[in-house]
Design goal:
GO molecular function: glyceryl-ether monooxygenase activity; iron ion binding
Distance between the termini: 62 Å
Main location: membrane
InterPro entries: Fatty_acid_hydroxylase, Sterol_desaturase/TMEM195
Number of domains: 2
Number of helices: 16
Strand content: under 5%
Radius of gyration: 21 Å
Order of helices and strands: HHHHHHHHHHHHHHHH
Mean pLDDT: 87
Subcellular location: Endomembrane system
Oligomer: single chain
Protein name: Fatty acid hydroxylase
C-alpha cells in the first residue's frame, strides 16, 4: 500500500466508533426524511380531494402541524443522534450470540417476522406505559384521520427508549442497521393506512394491517381503545387478543380521549410529557412516582384524579359521571394529558 493509501486507511480506522454508530443508526431514518416531500404531496392531494370532491371539512392547519412535527423530528435526530437506545443496541451487537448473514431469503423472512413481533410489543407498550405514551400520544393527537397523520410521530423518541424492544433481534445476530431498515420499511408501509378513502380489503384483512384496521386503532371510543397494534401484519393482534373491528353502531371518533385542539408544534410534541411531569409533582410516595412514569396512561396520583376526570368531561361538553363521559373516564380517565 502506498503512503497516501496507508494514511487514508489509518484515518478510517481511527474514526470514533460512536461516529460510525451514529451514521449507521441514522441512515434508515434519513430515508424516511428524504421521502417526506413526496408523502406530504400525496397527503395534500388527499386533502384537496376530500375538500373539493367529497365536500369534507379538511383541517389544513393540522396538515401543516404534522409537517412541522416531521421537520422538527429530523432536527432532533441530527442533534441527539440515535439516543440511549441506539447506543445500547450497538453494545448488545458487540455481545451478540451469533452473526446472521443476510444472504438468503430465509434470513430476510426471519428479520421481517421478528421485527413485526417486536414492533407489536413495542407499540402495545407505547399505549400502556406512560413514559412511552408521552411520545406516542403525538401520533394519536390529530382529530381527523388522514395521510398527514402518518408522519406526525413526535420529537422525543431518542429519549424514550422504545427502540430497546428490538434488542432481542440484535442479540441473536441481526445487525442494528438491518433491524432499523426493517423498521423504516414498516413505518413507510403504514403511511397508506392513515386514510378513510380505502374500504375493507376482503381476505387481506385476515393477515395484513389495513386502513380499516388502523382506523380502529386511531379511534378514542372506549370500545376501540388500545387495539390493532400491528405494523405490516395483523396476525399478532389475532394471536394476543387485541384485534377489534369497527362496529356499524359505533362510529369512529379520532384523536385523544381528551381532544388536543392546538396546532402549535411545540405543544403537540410536549403536551403529554408536561401532563406526566405535572402528575409527578402530585406523587406522594415511591409507588405513585413509579406508576406515574411506568404505569398505564390512565393512572394518576390521587391528588389529581378528580381534576383530570372533570377536564375530560369538560373537553367533551359532558357532565361528569353521566353517559358517554362516564364510559370514557372509566376506560381512560385522561389519556390525552
Amino acid at each position: 500500500m502506498n503512503g497516501g493509501g496507508h494514511r487514508r486507511a489509518q484515518a478510517r480506522s481511527s474514526r470514533p466508533r460512536t461516529t460510525i454508530r451514529h451514521h449507521a443508526m441514522d441512515s434508515p431514518l434519513k430515508v424516511l426524511f428524504f421521502v417526506l416531500p413526496l408523502l406530504a404531496l400525496i397527503a395534500a392531494a388527499e386533502g384537496w380531494y376530500l375538500q373539493r370532491r367529497r365536500g369534507r371539512d379538511y383541517d389544513w392547519r393540522a396538515y401543516f402541524a404534522s409537517l412541522a412535527d416531521a421537520i422538527g423530528r429530523r432536527a432532533v435526530v441530527i442533534a441527539l443522534g440515535s439516543g440511549v437506545a441506539g447506543a445500547f443496541l450497538y453494545w448488545i451487537w458487540e455481545h451478540r450470540l451469533a452473526t446472521i448473514p443476510m444472504d438468503s431469503a430465509w434470513s430476510w423472512l426471519g428479520l421481517f417476522v421478528g421485527q413485526e413481533f417486536c414492533y407489536y410489543w413495542m407499540h402495545r407498550a407505547d399505549h400502556r406505559i406512560r413514559w412511552l405514551w408521552a411520545t406516542h400520544a403525538v401520533h394519536h393527537s390529530p382529530n381527523q384521520l388522514n395521510l398527514s397523520a402518518a408522519y406526525r410521530l413526535g420529537w422525543t423518541a431518542p429519549v424514550s427508549g422504545a427502540a430497546l424492544f428490538f434488542a432481542p433481534l440484535v442479540y441473536i445476530g441481526f445487525s442494528p442497521l438491518v433491524v432499523l431498515v426493517a423498521l423504516a420499511t414498516n413505518l413507510l408501509y403504514q403511511f397508506w393506512l392513515h386514510t378513510e378513502l380505502i374500504g375493507r380489503l376482503g381476505p387481506l384483512e385476515w393477515v395484513l394491517n389495513t386502513p380499516a384496521h388502523h382506523r380502529v386503532h386511531h379511534a378514542s371510543n372506549p370500545e376501540y381503545l388500545d387495539r390493532n397494534y400491528g405494523g405490516v401484519l395483523i396476525v399478532f393482534d389475532r394471536l394476543f387478543g387485541t384485534l377489534a373491528v369497527e362496529r356499524a353502531d359505533t362510529p369512529l371518533v379520532y384523536g385523544l380521549v381528551k381532544p388536543l385542539t392546538t396546532h402549535n408544534p411545540l405543544k403537540i410534541a410536549f403536551h403529554a410529557w408536561w401532563a406526566m411531569f405535572r402528575d409527578l409533582a402530585h406523587a406522594r410516595s415511591v409507588r405513585e412516582v413509579f406508576l406515574t412514569l411506568l404505569g398505564p396512561p390512565e393512572w394518576h396520583p390521587a391528588a389529581s384524579q378528580q381534576a383530570r376526570r372533570d377536564d375530560v368531561c369538560a373537553a367533551r361538553g359532558a357532565v361528569p359521571g353521566k353517559g358517554e363521559c362516564a364510559a370514557v373516564v372509566a376506560a381512560r380517565a385522561a389519556r390525552g394529558g
